[in-house]
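@channel sequence for tomorrow's demo:
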Amino acid sequence: MSNKSDPAKLDAEVIAEAALGLLDEVGLDGLTMRKVAAALNVQAPALYWHVANKRELLDTMARAVFVSAVDGLEAPRRDEDWRDWLIALAGRLRRAMLSYRDGAKVLAGTYVSDESIYRTVELTLRTLHDAGFSKTRAARVFPILLHYTVGFVIEEQARSDGEYGDRNPYLPDRLAGLVDAHRYPLTAQLVTDVFSGDTDTEFTEGLHVILAGIHAMPPERMSPAD
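structure tokens (generated this afternoon):
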């Protein structure tokens, strides 16, 4: 009996799930269409009916990660501050990316099209508009938060990359000895605080800084559409 999967049962979502399942083992750089096909017990050409190339595979993987992040997302509660809602949304996306090795790299630069994406953007824009932002400024906020979140997690995952092994330069005990605290006291404190391993706090504080800056921006001239 053959142990190969039925190619007729393949679709883009099944292929993306298999590819995401391989990330912990091979990482994004090691991911190939041939390895995904092997994981599904099919020949590589069977995949090309559903994803034309690795670029499309990454788009499909990114969609799966994003959809999982916003599953169950609802508009802010009546008494919920818009900043808290946005921070929680960014936290959802961060956790989804951290679920996979190189999860943030999967999302970076990909084209994601899905009903859940449009719904998330719509909820975000409505939340900001209800908070007093013009439609134009609200439209600028979403990509700022998205890019910060993806970029932060890329850096976060790079720091913990298993390829370093025991020689990971980001380990707190290694960082503590890198800077001469007598000559560079502020830098030494920065290294201790920022790279302490408390990435949850680091991430949330960054979001607060961004949102405070956005909120403090001078009002812009409203267009008729706003």
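heads up for whoever presents: The mean pLDDT is 86.
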